[in-house]
Amino acid sequence: MSVLLNDLITALDDELKPQLFRDYCPNGLQVEGRSKVQKIVSGVTACQALIDKAVEMKADAILVHHGYFWKGEETSIVGMKKRRVETLLANGISLIAYHLPLDGHPTLGNNAQLAKLMGWQEKGGMEPGKSRSVGSWGEVEKSLSLDELSRMLELKLGRKPLAISGGEHAVKTLAWCTGGAQKLIEDAVRFKVDAYISGEISESTVHFARENGIHYISAGHHATERYGVQALGQWLVDQFGIEHSFVDIDSPV
Q1: What CA–CA distances, in Å, run from 203 to 164, 206, 208, 226, 250?
Q2: Alpha helices in the chain (DSSP H)
Q3: pLDDT tens-digit profile of 93-151?
Q4: Any residues with CB less than 8 A from the CB of 4 and at least 6 apart, and which?
Q5: Domain residue ranges in the chain
């Protein structure tokens, strides 16, 4: 089966509601390809390796979390960006990207999918009053040591996390936000949780965690954001009966 590209984008926009977010990039259709979509390839980042794989798989569209045209970047389509866009256009492949709207979706989002994978019980968002919060908080089923939580993340994500101890306390409550959201540890402290998990870490995060008595785990930007785009791809299969394949282009970050 196939779906018109415009109908697919309309459905995605209706589901993900990008108008609710102040983002750093355009959400939705970033590069227009063929008018009909039968096969879609998803991945975390629209790197050249993912595009080349989509060409090999004869995909009509690529769906990613990290697309192009970020605020503050060079706007000229030259070098690496030229090669990427040129490959898309030459093969009639559309690029579809959703950043914060995919993080914040209550069931398909990166944060919701990470909680599902880990078995965490989500209690609410880290942005009170917002229906689509970037960041979540909740509880683990039973109290864990920091080492035990770290080992569980390593087992599920296939990547050894970096854990910063904020004291001797066990972990029962926690907050999390996938990707490069280490600065949200400040919000996690206000929720008085035992630990905060994100994808990356800054030098200052180490001292903030130690001095504020909260454990911090950097579990990997790529590793924590593989799951929302897969759930969204499956949602498109359920909605339109199109083909979907997730391609994991590994990143150590």
Answers
A1: 11, 6, 9, 25, 24
A2: 5-16, 48-56, 79-90, 100-104, 110-118, 146-157, 185-190, 203-212, 221-224, 227-240
A3: 999 999 999 999 999 999 999 999 999 999 999 998 898 999 999 999 999 999 999 99
A4: 35, 36, 37
A5: 3-102+225-246, 104-222
**CATH dotted code for 3-102+225-246:** 3.40.1390.30
Rounded-to-integer distance, Cα 224 and Cα 199, Å:
6
> Looking at residue 129, what is its pLDDT?
87
State the residue for tokens 């593989």.
Answer: 226
φ/ψ of 94, rounded to 5, equals -80, 145
In which residue are the tokens 């009639």 written?
Answer: 92
SS3 call for 224:
helix
- In terms of CATH, what superfamily is 104-222? NIF3 (NGG1p interacting factor 3)-like (3.40.1390.30)
- DSSP reduced 3-state for 154: helix
The closest alpha carbon to 99, from 232, 217, 239, 201, belongs to: 232
